[in-house]
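Technical annex B. To support the medicinal chemistry partners, we prepared a structural model of the target in complex with fe (ii) ion, based solely on the information shown next.
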Amino acid sequence: MTEFLKAYSIQSWLESAPQGYLEHTQFGHPEGEREPDRLLENPQLRDQAIGGCVQLVVGERCALAASSGLVNAAPDEASKRFLATQTLDEARHVEIFTQRLYDLGVKKIELEDVLSQRANPNLVKFAEVLLEKVDKKDFVAGVVGQNIVLEGMAFCVFEMMHQGALEQNPKFAHTLEGTIADERRHVGFGENRIGTLIQENPDRKPEIQAMQRDMSTHMLLAFNALGRGDDEQSQRTDELGVRILHEFKIRLERVGLEYQAPLGS
Ligand SMILES: [Fe+2]
Ligand SMILES: [Fe+2]
């Protein structure tokens, strides 16, 4: 527990993130970097980038609502403090991806309309399944849903986007790097904290596994919709879905839960 307390303390968060890899960043990237001209000047590419970034803002808003809600559901002080740092991380993610929408040409006054019109409905359902548990102050289910399922997915999506942006868009690649480092810490907390809680509450397993199955089902439907109409894109999102489900399986087994395949797959 002492190592756990140290690794997830506010002090170590300060040293590694704000005073570490986030130092000298502005909205997540070095000052002066901008979106590439070839993206800004091509209406189709710019529109695609906006559509993708909207999903990131929607996912991060869900993570912000979940992590802040879980502060008051947490059974111990160390978890409350960690979740307070996570709340700030998620608020930062919402802010930097929203800023990217502005950089891509979305007007501030249009933001909420663009988000509600372009958010993938299955991603919204995915978020609702999690937030329902958080609203009930169900800490064990909330942490599995957030720090294992939602963030396991985010981690893989960010890594894929990072690969794609490395050469084409250093500004976005740098923005993603800080986010990936944050998500790694969040996923680590989930795995470390939840294993013991599952052991202490074995009767909760079936219900939590059903939540994971429902979230995975919505996630795959969201990916199907994002890949529709473009064979190459569709193959990429299919592969990503398979990879994420495989990650879920490994992470869930580590905390003593049994992975449930999504419905209809
Ligand atoms: Fe996040
Ligand atoms: Fe996160």
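Notes passed to the chemistry partners:
The chain has a mean pLDDT of 93.
The chain has one domain: 2-20+33-254.
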